[in-house]
Design goal:
Blueprint (H helix, E strand, L loop, with lengths): L24 H6 L8 E7 L5 E7 L1 H10 L3 E4 L4 E4 L8 E8 L5 E8 L26
Length: 138
């Protein structure tokens, strides 16, 4: 038997300043990120259309959300990723992801288990209404 040399290890890819990361290029190109590289992610209950919360995503958080079935955000205050429900049990199962017409906001439709808000309310908007003058169609 002839001895074969082990294949040379493939060099690790160089880190790129390209914000696209693992996202498909067409999605990465469509995103309009803020100065911190983030996009607003509006989270909505898929069957009732309740607006549950707003979070922030960078390319990696969006990639994780699109490929795992669970919503991942980027915490601006803690400077790290967090997957909704890992500590609270209030999980968000992804049903769909869409980008708005301007490319600066995502709509993440989910099946929310438990409270969406860290305060324990169903949505981050419950009980937080302002008093306003309402408009009417003539």
């Amino acid at each position: 038997m002839s001895e074969q040399s082990a294949p040379s290890p493939t060099p690790a890819p160089e880190l790129s300043s390209d914000p696209a990361g693992p996202l498909p290029q067409e999605i990465a190109n469509a995103l309009k990120r803020d100065a911190a590289g983030l996009v607003a992610a509006i989270v909505q209950q898929h069957d009732t259309n309740e607006v549950l919360m707003l979070g922030w995503m960078d390319d990696e958080a969006l990639h994780r959300t699109m490929t795992s079935g669970r919503v991942t955000f980027y915490s601006r205050s803690r400077q790290k990723y967090w997957r909704k429900g890992d500590t609270s049990g209030h999980v968000q199962f992804v049903k769909s992801v869409a980008l708005d017409c301007d490319g600066d906001a995502l709509l993440i439709r989910v099946d929310q288990i438990g409270a969406a808000c860290h305060t324990g309310t169903r949505t981050c908007f419950d009980g937080r209404d302002f008093s306003v003058v309402t408009g009417h169609r003539d």
